[in-house]
Amino acid sequence: MTSSTPAPTPAPSPARRSVLTGAAALTAAGFVAHPAPADAHGGGRHGGHHGHRSTRLTVLGTTDLHGNVLNWDYFKNLEFDNATHDDIGIAKAATLIKAARQRLRHQPVLTLDAGDTIQGTPLAYYYARIEPITGGTVHPMARAMNLVGYDAAALGNHEFNYGIDTLRTFESQLDFPLLGANAVDPATGRPVFPPYVIKKLRVHGGPHLTVGVLGLTNPGVALWDKANVEGRIEFPGLVEQARKFVPELRRRGCDVVVISAHSGADTSSSYGDALPWPENAASLVAEQVPGVDAILVGHAHKEIPERFVTNVRTGQQVLLCEPLYWGMRVAVMDLDLRHERGRWKVVAAHGQTLNSNTVAGDPAVLAAVQRQHDTVVGYVNSPVGTSAAALSAARAVVEDVPIIDFVQFVQADAVKAGLVGADAALPVLSIAAPFNRSASFPAGEVTVRDVAGLYIYDNTLLAVKVTGAQVKDYLEFSARYFQQVSGAGPFTLDQVTNAVTPTAPNGTPDYNFDSVAGLDAPLTYDIDIAQPAGSRIVGLAYDGQPVTADREFALAVNNYRQSGGGGFPHVSTAPVVYNRQNEIRQLLIDWVTAHGTIDPAEFASVDWRLVSGGRPVSVS
Asked: Which tens digits make up the pLDDT trace of 394-446?
């Protein structure tokens, strides 16, 4: 997801992988030693390239760390694991980075990050909201990243989630610059963060190497964090700003220009026509801006070990590399250089990614954040209330279950309390998706971790004004989640859910199946999965009466949906009637804290069902 990204579903933890350090760590992690150019370590020797000195610049990179330091799943209170047995956390990435630096100690090396650092885990949340760094605490990601020794990092869109004061405090705690060439002052158009940094690197026995590192973030910040940045910072396109600053870096004597871009490689935008610039534009920068040698890619949560994009003006092959998110991988970009006509020039490039699941966490990084980690483990495992019954999300993808009704109720209740003026008379509806099928509340004591496990993203709550016709369109779009089947079953879950569509070739994810519920009266409907997508919503009614096309509602949505995430119709263009930047997960935790007891009798009802030709569908 764009505003809050889906997590892989952790699998039962196997025996942990063997843990290594040093050269053995690089070998186990998949490091491939590409043949070095002649005279690759300088040394003043000639030969191989017709008398030209040669060297290699290696750029090591991480991206989308999202507040992960340890290999830990706070919501499960267990070591992290997933179906492919990836490991996470900057501590493990640090081991790989330090081992690579040691191996490459005779040549120039840079270490960069491509953004989304201070949001995404309870560890990050705690030091933004519970014990905020604006009060004097050092952010655990600052502690960890300083120990790794980054040269620079790009701003990610999630850096702005907690407001500019928190971001500026985090920036002040770092030993390296946060770069954002396209985070600009609305009045002057000049960057409000450093646009770039120039590094002069020693080449043994040869002239020093001057490298410009340009940082670019995502234009979507203007939408996703509008409440935090509107009127204060604007976010023009990546290509537009790179066209300004790459020539400036070259004029300032840079032999090599590397971009750290919090923007995916495969051109797309989740915000449609709301902004004139694409969200994922790294490949466009490579293609359209002359003078770029390599791009560390972020934001898309994909793995791209090596991709070359041809610049249309110069014909240069520009290297793109994106390591997987949360510290699962470290990027290694090798740029082979030749010194000719008084300048270093890139003559070849290679990319690869290293796997963190083969190594131990760096002891210094682990030690630096252990106390803060322990504090947060205590926080997420502390009780906040009780549940009158055991509630589970396991069947939320095929049934209207009470635990999702709880989310709907808290969201709608908050919106109703916050509507003003004529909008206060609108009936309130709410959308919710089953983010985490393994979420549950036990009967009895409920902890922060239980509640947070139900809502695993840092989304904020908004409400938009919609019509009955738009609600039906929205539900039809959501119902594309289901596979078309004949008869009433019984079917397995896998036979009816996660339908493959042109925009979801690997199957529609659970987080893109929204149900809609009413607050003061039920919104009821059937989903006929024997019908083709687009013709599935049957009997849509509010308070027992058919919903007319022009009936108006306030619809509670999260900021991801309202910004266009998932491509759901209408909500990104509908008038916003509520936006207080309240985080939904915290609203749920606060509700339980205030009320003490989660009683399904207060909010649960079965308002939608799966049918086939009017007959209820059986799903086992």
From this structure: 999 999 999 999 999 999 999 999 888 889 999 999 999 999 999 999 999 99
At 8, the pLDDT band (50, 70, 90 cuts) reads very low
Residues 435 and 369 in one domain: no
Residue pair 115/217 in contact (Cβ under 8 Å)? The answer is yes
> Is residue 3 a part of any domain in this protein?
no
User: Are the C-beta atoms of 377 and 437 separated by less than 8 Å?
Assistant: no
The pLDDT, as a whole number, for residue 20 is 65
Domain closes at, from 377, 393, 424: 377
3-state secondary structure of 63: coil
pTM, entire model: 0.78
Q: Residue 207's domain is classified under what CATH number? A: 3.60.21.10
d(CA 107, CA 111): 13
Which neighbouring-strand residues pair with 454? Answer: none
**pLDDT at position 26 over 90:** no
Residues 80 and 149 grouped into a single domain: yes
Q: How far is CA 438 from the centre of its chain?
A: 21
Q: What is the DSSP string of 473-497?
A: HHHHHHGGGSPP-SSS--B-HHHHS
Interval 77-118: pLDDT, tens: 999 998 899 999 999 999 999 999 999 999 999 999 999 999
Same domain, 350 and 395: no
Q: What is the pLDDT of residue 582?
A: 80
Predicted confidence (pLDDT) per residue in 129-183, tens digit: 899 999 999 999 999 999 999 999 999 999 998 999 999 999 999 999 999 999 9
pLDDT band at 37 (very low <50, low <70, confident <90, very high): low
Is the domain of 313 the same as that of 447? no
279 belongs to a structural domain: yes
Query: Domain boundary at 356, 377, 398, which?
Result: 377
Asked if omega into 490 is within 30° of 0 (cis), the reply is: yes
Same domain, residue pair 340 and 436:
no
CB 570 within 8 A of CB 470: yes
Contact of 119 with 128, CB cutoff 8 Å: yes
What's residue 34's pLDDT? 82
Q: What is the pLDDT of residue 42?
A: 42
**What is the domain range of residue 391?**
382-616
In sequence order, which residues have a C-beta less than 8 Å from that of residue 212 and are 6 or more positions away?
196, 197, 198, 199, 246, 249, 250, 252, 254, 256, 257, 258
In a domain, 12, yes or no: no
Q: What is the largest CA-CA distance in the chain?
A: 86
Helix H, strand E, coil C: the string for 427-478 is CEEEEECCCCCCCEECCEEEEHHHHHHHCCCCCEEEEEEEEHHHHHHHHHHH
Report if residue 11 sits inside a domain.
no
Asked if 348 and 37 count as a contact pair (C-beta separation under 8 A), the reply is: yes
Cα–Cα distance measured from residue 80 to residue 16, given in angstroms and rounded to the nearest whole number: 10
Give the whole-angstrom CA distance, residue 153 versus residue 156: 9
Long-range contacts of 587-593 (CB under 8 A, 24+ apart): 587/410, 587/411, 587/414, 587/461, 588/406, 588/407, 588/410, 588/451, 588/454, 588/455, 589/384, 589/448, 589/451, 589/452, 591/410, 591/413, 592/384, 592/385, 592/446, 592/451, 593/384, 593/385
pLDDT score recorded for residue 14:
34
